[in-house]
Amino acid sequence: MAAAAAAEEEKTVKYGIIGVGMMGREHLINLYHLRDHRVSVVCAADPHPPSLDSALHLAHSFNWPLHVFSGHKELLDSGLCDVVIVSSPNMTHYQILIDIIAHPKPHHVLVEKPLCTTVPHCKQVVDAAKKRPDIMVQVGLEYRYMPPVAKLIEIVKAGEVGPIRMVAIREHRFPFLVKVNNWNRFNANSGGTLVEKCCHFFDLMRLFAGANPVRVMASGAMDVNHKDEVYDGKVPDIIDNAYVIVEFDNGSRGMLDLCMFAEGSKNEQEISVVGDIGKGEAFVPEGIVKFGTRVAGRDGVQTIQTVDKRIKYDGLHHGSSFLEHLNFLYAIRNKGTKAPEVDLIDGLVSVAIGVAAQVSIEQGRFVTMEEVLK
Ligand SMILES: NC(=O)c1ccc[n+]([C@@H]2O[C@H](COP(=O)([O-])OP(=O)(O)OC[C@H]3O[C@@H](n4cnc5c(N)ncnc54)[C@H](O)[C@@H]3O)[C@@H](O)[C@H]2O)c1
C-alpha cells in the first residue's frame, strides 16, 4: 500500500512558483485545473507578504499544502519541487533564471514573458541553459495557444493562404494594470512597453512569417496614460501607443498597431495574415477566425467560431495559460523526445524586436536586428 502510494507520489509533477502576484496566482489556479494530470503546486516564493497570503489562501481552498519562502534561493534549496514557474516582475527574471540554472538540483522552468528585459541578459540565460541539458526552459509566450490564434496558425502553416507577405497585429486595449510596488510603470523594470507586452506579438509575427526579423522601424509615445501618476518623485516613462514595422528575412513584413487607451473596442487583438493566395484573420476575445482566398473573393470568406474542448479554465487569457501548461507538462513528461514549444530563442528574439522598436522610437530611424543582437 505504502509502495503504491510512493509510486503515485513519484509520478506527480511538483511545481514551485516564484512570484505569486496576479500572474503567479493565475498559474496556481490553472495547475489546479490540471490536477487530473497528476500535478500539484507545493511551494511558492515572494518577498511581499500579502501576495504570499493570497497564494496560501488559494492553495488551501484547493486542499494543497503550500510551503512558502520569501526568496527564490530558499525555494530552490528546499528541494521540494521539480518544476519552477517564474512569474516575478520582468527585471527579476534574469537573476532568478541564472540561479535556477546554476542550482545543483535540476528544475524545469516556465518563465513568464518577457524572458528578460535586455538582449544581453537574454543571451546570458540562453548560454547558461546550454550547459544544463538536464533542464528544460519554456517561455510564457502564451498567445500562440489562444484558440483563434492557434486556428490561424494552423491555416497558415497548412499553406492555405500561400507564402506569407504581410502580418498585421492590432492590439487596442485598456491601460497597464496596477502592479505590486508599481514595477510596471518604468522602462527600467519592464523593459519598456514594446518589450513587456508586445513580445507576444513579435513572437506571433515571426511564427506567421516563418522567418527571422532583419530591421525594425517604430513611432510611439506616452500620450494619454499615467501622466498624472508619480512614484518616489518620478513620473512613469512607458509608452501607451505605437506603430511598429518589422521586416523579415524572407521578404515578408509585419506591423503592430498598439493603443492602450482603447477600451471602446470590440476586440482586444485583431490579427491579419495575407499571402499570395488568401487571407486569414483572428479576433480575440470574439474567438472568430475568418479565412478567404483571392479566387473565391468576398462571398467566399468563411467565418469559423473557434473552441478548444481541452480548456478547463479560461482564466485571464482565454484558456491560453491552461493550454500552455498542458503543452509544458507534455514536454516535461516526454523530455528527450519533445522540446518545449516556445524555447529560449523564441524568448530572446521576441525581446530583441521589442528592444529594436524602443531604440527606433528614441532615435527616429530603422534599427537592424544585427545592432541589437550583437
Ligand atoms: N502571459 C501574460 O500574458 C502575462 C500577463 C501578466 C503578467 N505577465 C508577466 O508575469 C510576471 C508577473 O506579473 P504580475 O502581473 O503577476 O505582477 P504582480 O506585480 O501582480 O506580481 C509580481 C509578484 O512578484 C513578487 N516579486 C517581486 N520580486 C520578486 C522576487 N525577486 N522573487 C519572487 N517574487 C518577487 C511581487 O512581490 C509580486 O507579488 C511579469 O513578468 C509579467 O510580465 C504575463
Arithmetic mean pLDDT: 96
Proper CATH architecture of the largest domain: 2-Layer Sandwich
Question: How many E strands?
Answer: 15
Sequence of strands across the biggest β-sheet: 14-13-12-11-7-10-9-8-15
The CATH C-level name of the largest domain is Alpha Beta
Question: Can you characterise this structure?
Answer:
Pfam families: GFO_IDH_MocA, GFO_IDH_MocA_C. It comes from Beta vulgaris subsp. vulgaris (Beet). GO terms for molecular function: nucleotide binding. Residues 154-368 form the Gfo/Idh/MocA-like oxidoreductase C-terminal domain. 35% of the residues lie in helices and 24% in strands. The mean pLDDT is 96. The strands form two sheets. The chain has a nine-stranded mixed sheet. A hairpin with an 8-residue loop joins strand 13 and strand 14. The chain folds into two domains: 2-140, NAD(P)-binding Rossmann-like Domain (Rossmann fold); 143-313 and 342-373, Dihydrodipicolinate Reductase, domain 2. It starts with a helix and ends with a helix. The protein is of the alpha/beta class and 374 residues long. The chain has 13 helices and 15 strands. The radius of gyration is 21 Å and the shape is globular. It binds nicotinamide-adenine-dinucleotide. Nicotinamide-adenine-dinucleotide binds at residues 18-24, 45-48, 51, 72, 87-90, 92, 112-113, 140, 142, 179-180, 196, 317. Residues 18-24, 45-48, 51, 72, 87-90, 92, 112-113, 140, 142, 179-180, 196, 317 line the site of nicotinamide-adenine-dinucleotide.
